[in-house]
Amino acid sequence: MNKWYRSSLILLAILLSAGCVSPDDQPAVANPERAEKILLKCEAKAQTRYEAEGPAAAEAVWQTKACSTAKQVTEQYWQKQRDIQLSRNRFQQDDVFAAMDWTEFFYKRQQCGYQQQASQWFCSAYPQWQEQMQQAYQKDLQANDFDLLVSRVEKFCSTKDYSEINCAIWRAALTDKKQLAYNNYLSNQQQLETDFYTCKSRFSQLKQVATKSNNKQKLLNFQFYSLPCSLVLQAASRTQLAYTFY
Asked: Where is the signal peptide (predicted)?
């Protein structure tokens, strides 16, 4: 046995006998469970020292290699566990969002303004899905006709089935659909002409009925409120088509 090894053993024996380091105060870095047990002992020892000798004595306990190492290992372990859980939650949330259509997404987003109804994880995570849901929303607006949107507004905004959130969602959808259709007419002259003559034909038929019943209000309602003809007339007013409608 060489002198250095023998000297180390003697020093360790002196430290152990003096109570400076116990066998349990040798935390295994690769063993978080053991480190946590040592940490509990360090907390108890620090509390005892604090009560007997004051803050400096308690701090001295935490400055020992055993206690500082145990604290570091335990904190790193729990941080890793938190990261794993966050990652797992994120994957679960991705699955939830991926299966959600825009109406449900917008409904839950509106709920974030009502904290007693809101899901905290949803409200914190929805911004990253905003663009994707907006694209799905625009695609759906293109596909849905006005009759569907009007019926939803009438349903959720009526006294019988009134829903503040759903009413707001479908009113906004109808407004967006109107703007989308109007912009499309301005940029697509061929579509505007096709729908213009369709609306003109409908107006002519309605005019005959309205004349017989002396009900001019029907003509006004058709001109200003019917969809999409009211939008067709608005867009046509910027072209020569408007002068041939009546």
From this structure: 1-23
Q: Which of 24, 44, 29 is nearest to 75 (CA)?
A: 29
202-209's contacts with Cβ under 8 Å and 24+ in sequence apart are 202/229, 203/229, 203/245
Residue 50 token pair? 């604090």
Residue with tokens 């917008």: 106
Give me the residue label for tokens 């899905």. 129
Q: Are the CB atoms for 141 and 103 separated by under 8 Å? A: no
User: At which residue do the structure tokens 């058709």 appear?
Assistant: 222
- What's this model's pTM, rounded to 2 decimal places? 0.53
Give the tens place of pLDDT for each residue, 46-64: 888 888 888 888 889 889 9
> How many Å apart are CA 186 and CA 227, to the nearest integer?
16
> What is the maximum span of the chain, computed from C-alpha positions, in angstroms?
123
- 218-232: buried (b, 16+ CB within 10 Å) or exposed (e) per residue? ebeebbeebbbbbbb
DSSP code string of 87-122? HHHHHHHHHHHHT--HHHHHHHHHHTTSTTT--HHH
Residue 197: burial class (beta carbons within 10 Å; 0-12, 13-18, 19+): middle
Give me the pLDDT at residue 86, please. 54
Handedness of CA 119, 120, 121, 122 (dihedral sign): positive
